[in-house]
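Subject: for your reference before the review

Hello V.,

The reviewers asked for a structural picture of the protein, and I figured it would be easier to keep everything in one thread rather than splitting it across files. Below is the amino acid sequence we used in the manuscript, unchanged from the supplementary table.
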Amino acid sequence: MPELPEVETVRRGLQPAMEGARIARVETRRPDLRFPFPERFAERLEGRTITALSRRAKYLTAHIDGGPALICHLGMSGSFRVEAEAESEPPGAFHHNRSKASAHDHVVFHMEAPGRDAVRVVFNDPRRFGFMLFAEGASNEHPMLAGLGIEPTGNALDGRLLQELFRGRKAPLKAALLDQRLIAGLGNIYVAEALWRAGLSPLRAAGTIAERGKKAAARAEALADAVRSVIADAIQAGGSSLRDYIQTDGSLGYFQHSFSVYGREGEPCPKPGCGGRISRIVQSGRSTFYCPACQH
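And here is what came back from the structure prediction:
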């Protein structure tokens, strides 16, 4: 599933094509994705202008002038691409390649704006776990968004806050970081990378970084720094690959070139002086990559 940095990269790639543009026409080529499309989906969007394109955790939100906000989720395999004339590329790049097969093009937004070429924004989703829903009121009050925790992209996420969130929790540290009710948008890949940067084991009980004393406080602060930095680095890597929305680099590459532990089972730990090797274990049915030698 695309994680927060990929979704943010997609938002930035779509922004020049969609923000400030009028939705001239909407094509829905099937009645549903993960969920049925809202009633009168195309009719309620056509003729309206997208005033802003934002992101909350792994959700994209298109704010519509005089209409409901449109909440989009990429699911497991969803992607957008922007088409103008004969050219077509998906904004952003992903750890797993995205489909361009037209059989999986399920929604097409025809966008128009003064001084710009008309473009089509196409949502492609082979597995159809993505969805598009309306938020009738404030988008942050929609049931999909209302219970989400703090974003991991700002200074509000610090060691003290992590201690408050994890105090008394016996669940493994990895599970606590993946709990969207606590921190919104973190996924399997970047949690593994953040724990490695902080030198903390994914098996450690989350509550141990919230105990009294300087050691626990230092661990909490190191983890907060690691979470913020790994997300920032990944967003920067994706953002730097964006040119404009027509020439967006849709090839594989993204942040996986900088992965330190994810997907590197058996390889030497890249931390200077460590000497350990990356291990893979399974937690809650998902692969966890870490270095037992330097993550405690």
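For the response letter, the relevant points are probably these. The two ends are 28 Å apart (CA to CA). Confidence is low (pLDDT under 50) at residues 240-254.

Happy to draft the paragraph if you're swamped.

O.
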